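Sync notes, pocket subgroup
Present: LS, DG
LS reminded everyone that the earlier model was apo-only. Rerun requested with coenzyme A included. Inputs:
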Amino acid sequence: MTIFFIFLLIIVIVVLTSMVFSDEIKATLERDPAAKSKFEILLLYPGLHAVIAHRIAHFFWKRNIPILPRWLSQVTRFFTGIEIHPGARIGKGLFIDHGMGVVVGETSIIGDNVTLFQGATLGGTGKETGKRHPTIGNQVVVGAGAKILGNITVGDHAYIGANAVVLRDVPANSTVVGVPGHITKQDGKKIDSLMDHVHVSDPMMQNMKELLIRIKHLEDKIQK
Ligand SMILES: CC(C)(COP(=O)(O)OP(=O)(O)OC[C@H]1O[C@@H](n2cnc3c(N)ncnc32)[C@H](O)[C@@H]1OP(=O)(O)O)[C@@H](O)C(=O)NCCC(=O)NCCS
C-alpha cells in the first residue's frame, strides 16, 4: 500500500512539474535535437532542474527570506554545475544546454525563450555596484563560454558567439563574436569591415614606417 502511494505521489509530482514548466520543457524539445521525450527532459536535464530550483529560490528571495534562497542556489550548483543567483529575473522558456559552468549574476534580467550554452556567464565587471549584470532580451542565444559583463543590454534575437567577451550593448538581431566582442552580422547582413583580417593595420609595420621616416629625416640633416 505504501509503495503504491509513493508511486502515486511521484506521478502527481511529475505531472504537476511538467505542467508548471511546460514552456521550459517545450523549449528543450524544440532546441535540443538530442531530447527525445518530456519524461527524459524532466529526469535528465540539469538546465531544467536549475530553472525549477531557481523559481523556488526566487520566490523566497522576493519575500526577503534570508539564507534559504542562497542555500538552495548553492545546492543546485553542487548538483548541476549551474549557478543562478536567486535575485536574477528570468523569463519563460529558458533553455540551458549542458549547463556546467553557467553563471547568472544577482541583477541579471533574462527575457523569454533565451538559450544559454555551457560556460556562459552573465556577470559583473567588478567595477559597478547596484544593477551590475546584463539585461538579455527575448530569443537570445549565448554561445558556449561566452561572457557578458556589466550592466549592458543584449537586444532581442541577438546571437553571442562561443567564447565571446561582450562589454558593450548589443543591438537586436545581431551576431557578436571575439574578445572583446564585435558585431559581425546585423539584420541578416554581414558586417565585413570588422572581420577583415587582411586589411587590419599591423602595429609593428606602423612603427617600422615611422622609424624609417625619422631615419631619413636624420640622414637629411647630417648631409646638410
Ligand atoms: C557566431 C556563430 C553563431 C556563427 O554565426 P554566423 O553569423 O553564422 O557566422 P559565420 O559562421 O558566418 O562566421 C562569420 C565569421 O565569424 C567567425 N566566427 C564564427 N564564430 C566565431 C566565434 N565563436 N568566435 C570568433 N569568431 C567566430 C568565422 O570564422 C567567420 O570569420 P570570417 O568571416 O573571417 O571567415 C557560431 O559560430 C557560434 O559561435 N555559435 C555558438 C554555438 C555554441 O556555443 N554551441 C555550443 C554547442 S555545445
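DG: The longest strand covers residues 182-186.
LS: Residues 137 and 156 are 4 Å apart (CA to CA).
Action: DG to write up.
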